[in-house]
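Follow-up to my post from last week.
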Amino acid sequence: MSEKTLTRMDLSEAVFREVGLSRNESAQLVESVLQHVSDALVRGETVKISSFGTFSVRAKSSRMGRNPKTGEEVPISPRRVLSFRPSHLMKDRVAEGNAR
Amino acid sequence: MIRSELIAKIAEENPHLFQRDVEKIVNTIFEEIVEAMARGDRVELRGFGAFSVKKRDARTGRNPRTGDTVEVEEKHVPFFKTGKLLRDRLNGEDS
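User reply:
Got it. Predicted complex:
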């Protein structure tokens, strides 16, 4: 496995290459896509990107946790967590691409 | 929200771009992430989250219906970890 880490810069470089906008505008569009996805999730919406996957927000109720160091019980407040479910296409491509 | 609604929003904010270019932009972003993971790479989008590939070791599984044991091969699966900023925003810590 090559184990490289891509960032926003690599995504905007791909947009620059594929669409031919300026680097600056490509970067802004990548940011804007991430922003719209985040905003929808914060509103509690599910974001479903076909052939990519589904982001959904789940509410977790409060529960008692334990400080693993001291053993002390501490209440964990109710919270919303994000879960991502990859599409079958993504799962297949990741499995095939990384198979030995 | 689905892909076409995301495209519509970006198009609305960028009236100087052709619809087909906006489609290409959105598709390129998601395609690039899938391609990276198919190569075994990570994609780290600060504030949003990180996509990575996790290895699942080979194991002996069981067919839950028949109880037969089956050999499950090693495989790689996509994984997403939510970024701190987005996690905080989901819980009302504004920024």
